[in-house]
Amino acid sequence: MKKKSLVLLLALAMIFTFALSACGGGSGSSEESSDAGEETAVLKVVTEATFAPFESTEDGDDTIIGFDPDMMAAIAEDQGLELEWVNMEFDSLIPALQSDQGDIICAGMNKLAGDRAEKVDFGDTYFESDLMLLVTSDSDLTGIDAVTSDMKLASQIGTTGGDMVQEMQDEGKIAAGVVLNQWTDCYLQLQNGEVQGVIVDKPVGEAYLNNHGDIAKFVGESFGDHEEFAFAVQKGNTELLEKLNAGLANIKANGKYDELVDKWFS
Ligand code: ARG
């Protein structure tokens, strides 16, 4: 009897051992299933969407449209990334990456400005630009050097234009540098006479003039530092930055980049 029980016990032990190895053991099967079903991490792209044609929203719709979303979508497809976009104030963008509230900045951000590159890692340049002075059609101003100390100029807070109007105020060149959260507010203050000019990135001012050429104009030549727009990632995220740079190079090589420039800037 004893012998039979021993044989049965041994047989059961062998069956159990075989079953365990076949399903790869406790921890191995969970890794395999998680590997097999691993979700692709969705990367958060942060921007400030009153900067058409780079990024903007249409009345009543939170969807962000523009060159930047289209460009990043093409890069994401090329590199197998998944993106979601979050709209916030421009001067919150770098803090968002520093506090792990975002993975990528794509916002027509000049990678050469101030100490930005000490706080985040910028990628390759995807667009170049300069600043211009936007005034009302009836303005007698001839350019940025013609503004007088009784005037007010507006631009967006945290931007190169915003820094410039504040600098001009500090130097007594203008009565006030008005920095606002949204470009649309800057244009409104120009049109209602609260400011005599808006310092804005040339391609963005051109887009505004496309629809408001009857009430506004550029005056003078471009000024300030030549700007190089780039996306940015959290400091040290080299792997992601290399993917974004590779994707940008690929869409430039395959014609997609030029197609998007034609779509948004022609
Ligand atoms: N190019 C300027 C800068 O880097 C303005 C950028 C504003 N971008 C935006 N999405 N609001 O400061």
What does this structure look like?
With 266 residues, the protein is α/β, with parallel strands linked by helices. It folds into 2 domains: 41-126 and 230-265, Periplasmic binding protein-like II (D-Maltodextrin-Binding Protein, domain 2, 3-Layer(aba) Sandwich), CATH 3.40.190.10; 130-225, D-Maltodextrin-Binding Protein, domain 2, CATH 3.40.190.10. Helices cover 42% and strands 25% of the residues. It contains 10 helices and 13 strands. The strands form 3 sheets. A 5-stranded mixed beta sheet has the order 5-1-6-13-7. It has a 5-stranded mixed beta sheet with strand order 10-9-11-8-12, with helices on both faces. A 3-stranded antiparallel beta sheet has the order 2-3-4, with helices on one face. Strand 2 (50-51) and strand 3 (55-57) form a beta hairpin. Helix 3 packs across helix 9 (238-253). The chain is elongated and about 105 Å long. The termini are far apart. The model is unreliable at 18-36 (pLDDT under 50). The structure holds arginine. Residues 47-48, 51, 54-55, 90, 107-110, 113, 156, 159-160, 201, 227 line the site of arginine (ARG). Arginine binds next to loops.
Kindly list the characteristics that best describe this protein:
alpha/beta; D-Maltodextrin-Binding Protein, domain 2; 2 domains; five-stranded mixed sheet; 42% helix; binds arginine
Draw up the topology in text:
Blueprint: H1 2-22, H2 25-36, E1 42-47, E2 50-51, E3 55-57, E4 64-65, H3 67-79, E5 82-87, H4 93-98, E6 104-105, H5 116-119, E7 120-122, E8 127-136, E9 152-156, H6 160-170, E10 176-180, H7 183-191, E11 197-201, H8 202-212, E12 216-229, E13 232-234, H9 238-253, H10 256-265
Parallel strand pairs: 1-5, 1-6, 9-10, 9-11
Antiparallel strand pairs: 2-3, 3-4, 6-13, 7-13, 8-11, 8-12
Helix pairs in contact: 3-9, 3-10
This protein binds arginine (ARG).
